[in-house]
Q: What sequence folds into this?
């Protein structure tokens, strides 16, 4: 795992947005605990979180979605370098389109894609989640704007509103149990009960 941490530090220096350290640790520990057979990752980036999840659960298979073709190529190379390429596949394109066409169920979904689309994705993600499955979403408090800790600049109102709608959707759905954690940029962990 030390190699992953080293690559994560390099990714930050290159300006790649990656899951912050505490949130990353919670993600990895949750995958170790839940031992999902199938993982969906929205916002694969260069594949480091996906690799960490696969290394944390050696029976898991990962499906990733990433719109940036350059990052997809880097992720594929990283999968090869870490020996997990046989258990990982990536769809290149817009998650809004791809999520609607997914078949099958996932035991674990890691959502770290475009923040303004979380609410749009929510019904399809809940539908794709198996009973007892986990939806782990990053950035749900979006720079403190969602919690009201920080005044929202006008240009971020749409994203903030979408994120609030996403969290409301999760919390009001009786099929789900959602906890929101005010660490780093905020994470939510949702379990599908039925």
A:
């Amino acid at each position: 795992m030390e190699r992953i941490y080293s690559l994560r530090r390099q990714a930050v220096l290159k300006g790649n947005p990656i899951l912050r350290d505490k949130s990353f640790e919670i993600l990895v520990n949750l995958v170790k605990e839940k031992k999902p057979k199938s993982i969906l990752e929205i916002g694969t980036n260069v594949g480091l979180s996906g690799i960490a999840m696969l290394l944390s659960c050696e029976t898991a298979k990962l499906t990733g979605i990433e719109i940036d073709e350059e990052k997809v190529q880097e992720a594929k190379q990283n999968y090869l370098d870490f020996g997990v390429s046989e258990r990982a596949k990536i769809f290149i394109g817009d998650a809004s389109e791809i999520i609607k066409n997914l078949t099958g169920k996932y035991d674990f979904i890691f959502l770290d894609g475009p923040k303004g689309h979380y609410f749009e994705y929510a019904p399809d993600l809940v539908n794709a989640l198996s009973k007892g499955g986990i939806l782990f979403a990053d950035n749900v408090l979006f720079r403190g704007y969602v919690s009201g800790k920080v005044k929202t600049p006008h240009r971020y109102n749409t994203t903030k509103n979408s994120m609030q709608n996403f969290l409301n959707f999760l919390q009001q759905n009786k099929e789900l149990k959602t906890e929101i954690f005010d660490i780093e940029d905020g994470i939510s962990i949702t379990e599908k009960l039925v």
